[in-house]
Amino acid sequence: MKKILILTASIGALGAAAPSFGTDLAGQPVKVKAPLLPVAAPIIDWSGYYIGVNGGWGTSHNCWDFNGVTPEGCHNSTGGTIGGQIGYRWQIFNMVYGIEGQGNWADFSGSNVSTAFPANTVGTTTDAFGLLTGHIGYAFNAVLLYGKGGAAVTSNNYLLNSVASGTELANSNDVRWGGVLGAGAEVSLTPTWSAGVEYNHLFMQRSNISFPGLLGTDRAHQDIDLITARLNYKFGSPFAK
């Protein structure tokens, strides 16, 4: 009889404690894992000094006039080019401004039979050029589109050959100044490396060519078109925080 009373009292005590225990569990805060916040894309800053290399293809359109009056015809001098550039950019909001110097070796060569003197060929070789330009562009974060303009200089050799034998009759050379207009696109690969492609048109001043031992001079007109790929390394802005 005692065992039955003890068992009945124990069951009653457990029944009384159960609601209180349930209440304690219900009052505990539920731990919910917070959702991961989206990671914002990094903002590219194009400001800073940079140095790089470039290479590609070019064509020089050359027209000769004997004594500046009699046409001798035109020819395209085509070939490859490789060189380097150094410059500085500063970015204000999405606008990017810059200045750049570029120097290239070139191998643009071509010739034509003179229309004024059919026994001779006239030829032009451009072996180097340099550019000093200002840039203005717009940055779409990691992509930069820009235009450029400034001064250009070319180093040229002029040849007069015999059509019959192919032997050289005379040669001359000069350094010619002019202007350049161009445009390009560049993509940021890392915080320091970027790559792009660029087009430039050089419009050079007319030049008088004289050949030693020959009478008269030739007046030559020259335009050059360039397409180059570029790779730049940026050192960063001295004003960066």
Automatic annotation (TrEMBL):
The keyword Membrane applies. Residues 45-235 form the Outer membrane protein beta-barrel domain. Keywords: Cell outer membrane, Membrane, Signal. Residues 1-22 form the signal peptide. Coiled coil: none annotated. One of its GO terms (cellular component) is cell outer membrane. Belongs to the Omp25/RopB family. PANTHER family: BLL7405 PROTEIN. This is Outer membrane beta-barrel protein. It comes from Bradyrhizobium cajani. The lineage of its organism: Bacteria, Pseudomonadati, Pseudomonadota, Alphaproteobacteria, Hyphomicrobiales.
